[in-house]
Design a protein that fits this description.
With about 150 residues, the chain is mostly beta strands. It has two helices and nine strands, in the order αβββαββββββ. The chain has helices at about 5-10, 55-60, and strands at about 15-25, 30-40, 40-55, 70-85, 95-100, 105-115, 120-130, 140-145, 150. Strand 7 (about 120-130) and strand 8 (about 140-145) form a beta hairpin. The longest helix is centred in the N-terminal third of the chain and has 8 residues, at about 5-10. The termini are far apart.
């Protein structure tokens, strides 16, 4: 993949994410953005992800122009009858959502892990970076309670 294609892909609007709120937190233009994310492989589950978006004044004042913080919060709920599609059932799970948090190689991700023994879906929000991971993690669980599996 060429450098231009990688750059374009990093700014692509994530499929399945719908911005449902935005809260201004200070005079520098910093905001908390709230997005609704429907799990593409599990019908009836919606996650709400909140993250910090730096404003132009904050970027000018503090440098680090091309990166937003790794902070995020996640809550997932049953929003209809749950039907499991063809999901990854391994311990490492699979990405449900990802969005660029910097101009290069930093992504905010939501992963889904299937806890078979407890019949629960575990959703984890974290930031992945090329050289350094982040300890900032948010977690939410959705019990399956008789959901249909394919």
């Amino acid at each position: 993949m060429s450098g231009a294609a990688i750059l374009a892909a990093s700014f692509a609007w994530p499929v399945g994410a719908e911005q449902v709120g935005e809260i201004g937190v200070d005079w520098a233009g910093n905001d908390i953005v709230i997005e609704a994310i429907a799990d593409p492989d599990v019908t009836g589950v919606t996650c709400h992800l909140a993250y910090f978006k730096r404003g132009l004044i904050d970027r000018l004042a503090n440098g680090n122009w091309f990166e937003d913080p790794s902070n995020s919060a996640l809550e997932c709920q049953q929003t209809g009858p749950i039907r499991l599609g063809d999901i990854d059932r391994s311990k490492s799970g699979e990405d449900v959502f990802r969005a660029s948090r910097s101009i290069i190689l930093k992504t905010l991700r939501v992963k889904r892990i299937f806890d078979q023994s407890n019949q629960t879906l575990v959703y984890v929000a974290h930031t992945r970076e090329l050289t350094q991971g982040s300890a900032k993690v948010s977690i939410s669980t959705v019990p399956l309670r008789g959901a249909l599996t394919e």
